[in-house]
Fold these 2 entries.
Entry 1:
Amino acid sequence: SQTIHQWPATLVQPVGSPLSLECTVEGTSNPNLYWYRQAAGRGLQLLFYSVGIGQISSEVPQNLSASRPQDRQFILSSKKLLLSDSGFYLCAWSSKSRVDTIYFGEGSWLTVV
Amino acid sequence: AQKVTQAQTEISVVEKEDVTLDCVYETRDTTYYLFWYKQPPSGELVFLIRRNSFDEQNEISGRYSWNFQKSTSSFNFTITASQVVDSAVYFCALSEAGAGSYQLTFGKGTKLSVIP
């Protein structure tokens, strides 16, 4: 069966510091991968999605970036965090045959102080 | 543009009561998919159900049931005989079919608290 993992689960970072959240999917190949953010008291917002290695689409302009160095690895990064980057970040995947059904990872809580 | 509205921000019920979570959506497409996800306090999003726009048959899964009404653009979720473990935030979401439609549009969620 397919599984998705992301880490770290929680982190507290100072303003201006870099960020790296990592996500991997197991049990499937060539998945679509996504990064979502859930800010406090708000719904989920799609940040990036990827249909293949090195292919990244951004949905929201921001100081975050994403990369897909391997087929089942998706990384969310920032060179300099802002206070507004605080939130709950979720990695997700879907298969090419069922792009409409998305499965989520455990999430990462980011607090920028 | 597609939109999902969950008007109920928070609901509290006593254990064993039935509860319905409302979801109203907007889309211009005739082909689309509707979803419900559960987000327990631990944070992960758990997929509950997926319905396509051509299938209005209501679905029941144990204590969960879903009522899809295209005429009112609603996709409501009912939990029968609620339990404390049902306490979570529930999200309704919409995905439109077609090229490039890789994203879900989520409602803002309804926080359900089941009181023992």
Entry 2:
Amino acid sequence: NAGVTQTPKFRVLKTGQSMTLLCAQDMNHEYMYWYRQDPGMGLRLIHYSVGEGTTAKGEVPDGYNVSRLKKQNFLLGLESAAPSQTSVYFCASSSTGRLGNQPQHFGDGTRLSIL
Amino acid sequence: AQSVSQHNHHVILSEAASLELGCNYSYGGTVNLFWYVQYPGQHLQLLLKYFSGDPLVKGIKGFEAEFIKSKFSFNLRKPSVQWSDTAEYFCAVTSYNFNKFYFGSGTKLNVKP
């Protein structure tokens, strides 16, 4: 009963390095989301996807790219990491139902530090 | 873009005190509303949700929330808090008309034993 799994859990990068965060869900959810959480700012949506092969920009998309090649996976890429991208990143997934968007299920987060 | 406001950023209570956390949203259409809790070092977990029907919804751990459409509010309440309720609480809203969820900035609750 894994739910939403994020890898890695922690990572330290140097400015300019690239990396990919992986999110996998086993609930057959259509929608997947990437957020970043910074102190006092709540959750800010980076990118999201409403289905396999589709992605859309959220509130703070600059500096990030995403891909949803398989329904169960949603990848978040940092092409050239910057210190401003130091944050905790959460992935979430949800489904839709008769009454609209169902609650999101969250992963445990990835703590990313950019030096 | 829609907005969700949580007016209390940091609340400190003693055990057994009553709790009410405010949440207001801006969207005028039909909404689905949620409260999530985040314990220190953990991910967000669903406390309760409102989709339709009775505007007073009950969630886990003795929490409840009241949807007041005329005030665009969805305040979270608990009659008697415990030390284990120390956490950050987030209000969120979504709708049929948009695929995203909008979160408030969160309220940190500190319960003193």
